[in-house]
Amino acid sequence: MTTEHLKSLIRTIPDFPREGIRFRDVSTLMVDPDGFTEAVERMASIAPQDIDLVAGIEARGFLFAGAVATKLSAGVLMVRKGGKLPGDVHGRDYALEYGDDRLEVQVGNVPRGARILLVDDLIATGGTALAACELMEDAGAEVAGAVFLIDLPDLGGAQRLRDSGLDTHALISFEGE
């Protein structure tokens, strides 16, 4: 399956969640068994090896992280929005384009020194991904790399991660976003 075919499985929804935004809906790729399998296999193949945990960012990132983790024989770590995890948590506040947000992981789920692969469906400006990396490092882990299904390169997020020294890859790019 070509990259262009994978790209064609992703639906674009104009003016969602607000006017001027072109939402890249990966659900149409995910319901295609061959497309989803191919995407996961490719994501795993470009990931750094010797990974202990694959950290998926809420919510679509959980689905890709779980599937990639099975290919890498690694555990799965959920990086959740603030207030959604029980018990003690490590948290990181970060700025968004229109406000602030928080990411959290449960204390004890990130072993000190663990090699972590960050996975999400899409990288745009990179704010959430950078906050997730900082959260992993705060918890004592090493972020070995990041893999995304989609990159919106005009928004600069993947480049921000690379500039911070993180090995970063995406399967598909949508230019002009």
Automatic annotation (TrEMBL):
One of its GO terms (biological process) is AMP salvage. Transmembrane segments: none annotated. It catalyses: AMP + diphosphate = 5-phospho-alpha-D-ribose 1-diphosphate + adenine. Residues 40-153 form the Phosphoribosyltransferase domain. CDD domains: PRTases_typeI. HAMAP family: Aden_phosphoribosyltr. This is Adenine phosphoribosyltransferase.
